[in-house]
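Weekly structure sync, notes
Attendees: PL (lead), two postdocs, one rotation student
Agenda item 3: pending single-chain targets
PL asked that the sequence for the first pending target be pasted directly into the notes so everyone works from the same version. It is reproduced below exactly as submitted, 294 residues in total.
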Amino acid sequence: MTDTCLNTTALDVVIVNYNAGSALRACIDSVLASSGLRTRCIIIDNASVDNSLQLLDGLPEDRVQLVCNDQNIGFSAAVNQGVVLSNTTFFMLLNPDTYVPENSLHDLLECAQKYPQAGVLGCFVVNPDGSEQRGCRRDQPTPLLTLAHGLRLHKIFHRLEFNHTMRPLPQEVRVVGSISGACMLIRRTAHESIEGFDTGFFLHFEDLDYCARMAINSWDVLFVPFIKIEHIQGVSSAHMPLRVIMHKHKSMLRFFYKHGGWQRSLIPLLAPLVVAHGCAQVFSTLIKRVRCAR
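Predicted structure, written out during the meeting:
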């Protein structure tokens, strides 16, 4: 399927929801209010148990499509499910706790059309306080870099830092190793060429894997610094913090086994650090729950 076969004047936006509460409605409203192009939201709900879907009453049926799964099938599988329902040349992947300024989607789509090798584009993702959110521009992590992080060596040798958050913000579009999965503009032909998201990643690291496979298949991963989107972060994961921690660390090891190359030999050294880090996060979460319960 070629780009010219599809609609280039509209944008389908896939949003995977899991207990995002009122943030989901706010996200959809901001997408539908976008100027300069016609947007349509495809909501894939992974068996939410909160009131997020009840808050969608009154939305236009021709611009919002809702699919309700009877169980949580994971983020990657839900994204692929939503993409099948879309039909635009480019489609957008947004987290339900993002907010889209009025011109951002139009400007990002316009930018993408200038770069025929762009497989996936990300923008300047900011926290609610306006600061840059960690992970929106970064190199691909490797076992060696992650081991160095675990030993805090990146504090001494700054070249070992794979996140670009502390670097000056570029003024022009840049090719990067990876962008944030909270906000991805994706070329359909590129997505199809790599057969979508790897459903083996239930949660976390699916965006890093996706960008890695884009690069392997000769598609560019682009960071667009002059287009901004706000991401609250952690709205859905707050409902199941222990499961999120488990999936994150499990996905990390799976990612390194898949893309680690010769550095896979370091995984036996890295694995204990990953487990220890996960246990520390679990312990910290439990302590916070106990304190909140008092």
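Discussion points:
- The mean pLDDT is 91.
- Helices lie at 22-32, 75-84, 104-112, 143-150, 188-193, 206-216, 241-259, 267-293.
Action: rotation student to compare against the earlier draft before next sync.
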